[in-house]
Amino acid sequence: MLPGYIGNPRPWEEDEARVFHNRASTVQGHSMSTHCMVCQLEVDGSETRHVVKVIEKEWTDHYEAEILADLFHLTSSCLRNPVIPFEVFDCAKSKLIIMPQLCPLVNLSPWASGIHQIVLDFITQAIEAVDFLHSHNYAHLDIDMGNFVFALENTVFGSFNIPKMTVYLIDFGHARRFDSGPGTNVTISHYPGGHLPPPEGEESVEPFAYDVYSLGIMIEDLCNLTQYLEPELQSFVEFLTVKDPQKRPMIGQVKEDWASLRRSLRRGKLLNTCAPI
Question: Which residues form the Protein kinase domain (predicted)?
Answer without folding.
Answer: 1-277
